[in-house]
Amino acid sequence: xxxxxxxxxxxxxxxxxxxxxxxxxxxxxxxxxxxxxxxxxxxxxxxxxxxxxxxxxxxxxxxxxxxxxxxxxxxxxxxxxxxxxxxxxxxxxxxxxxxxxxxxxxxxxxxxxxxxxxxxxxxxxxxxxxxxxxxxxxxxxxxxxxxxxxxxxxxxxxxxxxxxxxxxxxxxxxxxxxxxxxxxxxxxxxxxxxxxxxxxxxxxxxxxxxxxxxxxxxxxxxxxxxxxxxxxxxxxxxxxxxxxxxxxxxxxxxxxxxxxxxxxxxxxxxxxxxxxxxxxxxxxxxxxxxxxxxxxxxxxxxxxxxxxxxxxxxxxxxxxxxxxxxxxxxxxxxxxxxx
Amino acid sequence: xxxxxxxxxxxxxxxxxxxxxxxxxxxxxxxxxxxxxxxxxxxxxxxxxxxxxxxxxxxxxxxxxxxxxxxxxxxxxxxxxxxxxxxxxxxxxxxxxxxxxxxxxxxxxxxxxxxxxxxxxxxxxxxxxxxxxxxxxxxxxxxxxxxxxxxxxxxxxxxxxxxxxxxxxxxxxxxxxxxxxxxxxxxxxxxxxxxxxxxxxxxxxxxxxxxxxx
Lengths: 339, 214
Prior knowledge:
The structure holds two protein chains of two kinds.
Chain A (H helix, E strand, L loop, with lengths): L8 H9 L18 H7 L5 H4 L1 H13 L6 E3 L5 H5 L3 E3 L8 E4 L20 H16 L5 E6 L1 H9 L1 H10 L1 H24 L4 E5 L5 H23 L4 E4 L8 H5 L5 E3 L6 H8 L4 E6 L1 H6 L3 H14 L3 E4 L9 H13 L1
Parallel strand pairs in A: 1-4, 4-5, 5-6, 6-7, 7-8, 8-9
Antiparallel strand pairs in A: 2-3
Helix pairs in contact in A: 4-6, 7-8, 7-9, 8-9, 9-10, 14-15
Chain B lengths: L2 H17 L2 H13 L4 H21 L5 H18 L13 E6 L7 H12 L3 E4 L6 H10 L4 E5 L6 H14 L4 E5 L5 H7 L3 E2 L3 H12 L1
Parallel strand pairs in B: 1-2, 1-3, 3-4, 4-5
Helix pairs in contact in B: 1-2, 1-3, 1-4, 2-4, 3-4, 5-9, 6-7
């Protein structure tokens, strides 16, 4: 706790999410937090740290203990569920996240809706659950945030996004079956993460972004499934969609998420004027221009702007770029504490 | 067909592309061959024109990626039929672009759209795919006559790679232009990493390329 703080990081974060009173804005980070500098200092490197719960926990907590981020967040990538569902994954390197290289469902009949992974025992779902357990046992006053993929994005990963969008015209019933399936899988995963001690779940649905789907398709292909998932989650939830989501902000509120995390492309003030009275807004420091390539002064100024525009949790608009210097992260955190 | 009928025919093809109507595109392509209309003209004045309308609609947010993919598929349906009938001396390539998604990033829908539009605009495109290491860009520039290297990234975590690739290209091949794009990339970022140009979306990318080729 800072010297003037009346709340610990967890109380402040949860109150911020639930639109309750806070002593100041929170500097939690619901998106990816690991940098290569942190990996060098902890000795926990990607890709190993993505596959080993102890290393995952160590690298994640370092963002809190050393850089001062007011939360601890796992995992570091967005392929955990796709991998368990059989998509082929490139494990990535020290400075790159794992990524899906081959979808699992080439033909309609490849989809086996009876296969339901057991998140506490299967693949990297287990790794993340275990990391959450380690962290939640160790930290009682710091929020542990777990990230999961959105139902639409996961469907795109296991089917291939372009194929999925074509199916939308060619075989709409199959799309519904697939989206219902990914939703069910994610409901189970979120439940396991919550039982492992996660204080909040962030659902990340980049493929559902406006640039790709537009508002109309968002309403039919992403929103209902995301809502069903979020309604099932017992802890406070955050929804993050990449890109300029200004046209779908109201729709994102309809998912019943407690908070929306905004990409830096969204104007925070506009977002606040649109939905700020009914939902907590998180964001949206420019991760590349400012956090990664900017000076500490740039970071301070943008942090202040986010606070002024109405964000209750000040965080980057996307995952932290791996090349980001810890001093820039500190500049963001310190500015939030001072304001 | 007289000129008026011909223009009407191109217009129909363009509309079929905009509508994403693959069956209609194929029907028109076959009809065009039967009527002995120049295959290259059908592609440029019909199909490519249709794709230009599509990219304008995308820019105005009146059309989104699912419909664009449908249009692209419809267009390919026509182009596949017309290709064998193109007279080789028709093809005037105005420049060569080497395109790829940087190392650590596999998101290639944006890159594919840019590629498609560049090709329909008559450029030669060398597509290195996704997750492309710097060496592969360098090697291509070494071997081929490349005017522009276009780099795409979608994840903030892969932006460090983009910086490295641009740096190395600038050092080794200062005459080859670099352009960058992708959701987290901005004009400011492009300037900071020393890229020659930045495009905010696929249709702007075409204008940027044409500008760079001057």
